[in-house]
Amino acid sequence: MKYKKLTVGPVQENTYIIFNNNQEAVVIDPGSEGNRIINTIESLNVKPLAILLTHAHFDHIGAVDAVREKYKIPLYLHKKESDWLTNTKKNGSNHFGQNITANPASHLLSDNDRFLKIGNFSFEILLTPGHSPGSISYYLKNAGAVFSGDALFAGSIGRTDLYGGNQEILLKSIHHKLLNLPEETMVLSGHGPETTIAMEMDSNPFLGGF
Length: 210
Known about the structure:
Blueprint (H helix, E strand, L loop, with lengths): L1 E7 L4 E7 L4 E5 L5 H11 L2 E6 L11 H8 L3 E4 L28 E3 L5 E4 L2 E7 L8 E5 L4 E5 L2 E2 L2 E2 L9 H12 L7 E4 L5 E2 H7 L7
Helix pairs in contact: 1-2
């Protein structure tokens, strides 16, 4: 797996374009700056197969429609947030005086879904609620990488003061789902730099006692 990270929008959200040797690509959390994301896809000469959302907060969905309409690809999201794309209160944009929406997802994931195969990509779906009720982390075992959305950051964890957030649930998600991954696993999060599970176990101040 190869990936390109684009940090976009006013809150510096990380959008990922991941691709393989077959030039197949998956776009994770196209948050803003749709033209820039599309131009990067074109420059990489890859073929997007799908968009995956770790969750549906406004800073992760702002370029969904631009990318989806350009490439005519499906959008995957947990069903607990199926209406967040069109609800500015739930997706948090109205909290910041904005009106950011996207069209509904074509594919809704459930708590029973454990794996997702798209082209030659095989994702393990890790349910990591707490930052939001339907937060998902996508684990690529063969690549040794997890896309954690806003659950786990380098040296921090996701905020839980927005609609549906719960810090106790988030800490349990991190402990039971993410910290159980191999320690060398690269954590590619929704904001900030890359890290590893080992680094967060050793030094993340929010994870003391786990």
